[in-house]
Design goal:
By secondary structure, this protein is mainly alpha-helical. It folds into two domains: 2-73, no CATH class; 94-275, MetI-like (MetI-like fold), CATH 1.10.3720. It is built from 14 helices and no strands. It has helices at residues 2-28, 34-39, 45-55, 61-73, 87-122, 127-141, 144-158, 174-208, 211-218, 223-234, 236-252, 255-260, 266-275, 279-307. Helix 1 (2-28) packs antiparallel against helix 14. The chain crosses the membrane at residues 101-122, 134-161, 173-191, 235-257, 285-307.
């Protein structure tokens, strides 16, 4: 188990190094001059040159990359070109919205998908199974931003149960914060729950057809007992994969939902930074999100080793 974890950790470090190079080069080749965006197209050339020197934009790619990557290793994400504020402070303020939103949506998705997927597999071919397949297909097909607008129209405008957008801040209380994140979390969770439920159903159906499950049934276990005691744990590997990918998507891919609900999270900050050519903010936030994706993948790999004992010996 330890050898397996060390190998996966070294792979994580290598992935982070490659990702940092790709992100830096991809963002640097985007056309547009941050200094011209900040000062306007009519700014004098000497003024633009002075601002580029102040921001470090007059240096070559390699010195700028090494300065940025070294700062990231020290926890220094740089200073925003536009707001002249440390990026780390901006990220910390927005992370307390995006991270709870992703966790909230992932919790809702898991609580919905697991029992639904298990029920569909246990009633394979029945009315419940067919109904679940139909509903999950609709959940996958419906865009989450459209579903978000439907939720706003019903529960915010017509019923008045929730606000249509904005975030009161955690200082207003935990319940107030969670209430503001409820509709965005539901909009993010239901499409993901549909995917996860179908994966759970397929994995369980495949596992229920294995010889060890038939042997358990032959020893006198009921279908429900065989499913809970033997099939469920062995079906978790593909489900864990989807869970890891979903958390990464929910954390990094909620840009549209945060804009629909006017949530000042990481996604909306990246969107604004791209429009303002605030390169240091885009690079640092994207790198942070990539780190979160790779870290979640690493944790999923460790969960594989817990579910599948063959991995603990490094095989």
């Amino acid at each position: 188990m330890l050898r397996y974890a060390i190998r996966r950790f070294l792979s994580l470090l290598l992935s982070l190094g490659v990702a940092s190079v790709v992100i830096f080069l991809a963002i640097e080749v985007v056309p547009g001059d941050p200094a011209a965006v900040m000062l306007g197209v009519n700014a004098a050339e000497d003024t633009l040159a002075a601002l580029r020197a102040e921001l470090g934009l007059d240096q070559g790619l390699l010195p700028r990359y090494l300065d940025w990557a070294g700062g990231m290793l020290r926890g220094d994400f740089g200073v925003s070109y536009t707001y002249r504020t440390p990026v780390a402070e901006m990220v910390a303020d927005r992370l307390w919205i995006s991270l709870p939103l992703a966790l909230y949506a992932l919790t809702l998705s898991t609580l919905i998908a697991f029992p639904v997927g298990i029920l569909a597999a246990a009633r394979r071919g029945g009315a419940a199974d067919l109904g679940i397949i139909g509903v999950t297909q609709i959940g996958i097909a419906v865009p989450n931003f459209w579903f978000a607008m439907i939720l706003v129209a019903i529960f915010a405008i017509n019923l008045g149960w929730f606000s249509a957008g904005g975030f009161p801040g955690w200082e207003g209380g935990l319940l107030a914060g969670l209430k503001a994140l409820t509709l965005p979390a539901i909009a993010l969770a239901l499409p993901q729950a549909s995917i996860l439920a179908r994966v759970m159903r397929s994995a369980l159906i495949d596992t229920l057809g294995e010889d060890f499950v038939r042997t358990a049934r032959a020893k006198g276990l009921s279908p429900g007992q065989a499913l809970r005691r033997h099939a469920l744990r062995n079906a978790l590997i593909p489900v864990l994969t989807i869970l890891g990918l979903q958390f990464s998507f929910l954390l990094a891919g909620a840009i549209i939902i945060e804009n629909v609900f006017f949530l000042p999270g990481l996604g909306r900050m990246v969107f604004q930074a791209i429009a303002q050519r605030d390169l240091i903010v885009v690079e640092s936030v994207v790198m942070l999100l990539v780190f979160a994706v790779i870290l979640v993948t690493f944790l999923v790999d460790l969960a594989y080793a817990w579910v599948d004992p063959r991995l603990r010996g490094g095989r």
